[in-house]
Design a protein that fits this description.
Length: 217
């Protein structure tokens, strides 16, 4: 009998743990397909703007983290921690060359508008990867409307959808239901919350527990 798992993933583009969590989830889902091929998984990526008060053009990246963590040594230690976790997830992040900590309001409006289109699930997944890559690998500014427009066009979205999203003046998330207090957060079948970029085996076990719980309802 087919079982469907619904996973809502709360994230921000500027959070390296969200990209690491994405890779770990992908590995967990590979494991799940091997052990439970009858299970269908539906994912919804839901944006959370961690730093809504940043200036529209962002702040210098290094200065932002110096102010946040207090010293060069603290910044180095944090980046080392992130790079080690990223390496285990098969990622190489270009943290030392990111020029700005961007305001992600426009990026979230864009992704939300594109991902809500029923016929564009695969393209919205490509856009999600494209924007993560722009920030963490290409060191581009996700607060740049021209960059966001080009990325969405590359992914096959129409100009009207893109323009409407990028010109939306509202704060991102206004009027939305409350999101988990930290990212990444994974909500399985609307009730099981897992916060943090846990290893694939941990996520796999969580999914198995949710399948078992669903089978006994």
């Amino acid at each position: 009998m087919t079982h469907t798992l619904h996973i809502d993933i709360y994230f921000d583009f500027i959070c390296p743990w969200c990209l690491i969590g994405k890779r770990n989830l992908e590995r967990a889902l590979i494991q799940l397909r091997e052990t439970h091929p009858e299970v269908e998984v539906r994912q919804r990526w839901k944006g959370v703007q961690l730093l809504p008060d940043l200036p529209p053009n962002g702040l210098p990246y290094r200065a932002f983290y110096l102010n946040r963590l207090g010293s060069e040594d603290a910044v180095r230690q944090r980046q080392l921690q992130v790079q080690e976790a990223a390496g285990r997830a098969g990622l190489t992040l270009n943290l030392s060359n990111i020029p700005r900590m961007p305001n992600t309001r426009m990026a979230h409006h864009l992704f939300q508008a594109c991902s809500h289109r029923e016929a564009a699930v695969e393209r919205s997944n490509v856009l999600l990867e494209r924007l993560f890559s722009a920030h963490f690998e290409e060191c581009a500014n996700l607060g740049d409307a021209n960059l966001l427009q080009a990325a969405a066009l590359e992914c096959g979205f129409d100009r009207d959808t893109i323009a409407q999203a990028l010109n939306d003046p509202a704060p991102f998330g206004s009027g939305a239901s409350p999101a988990p207090s930290s990212v990444p957060s994974f909500v399985v079948d609307k009730h099981r919350l897992v916060s943090g970029a846990h290893p694939p085996d941990v996520l796999h076990q969580t999914l198995l527990q949710c399948i078992a719980a669903g089978a006994h309802q």
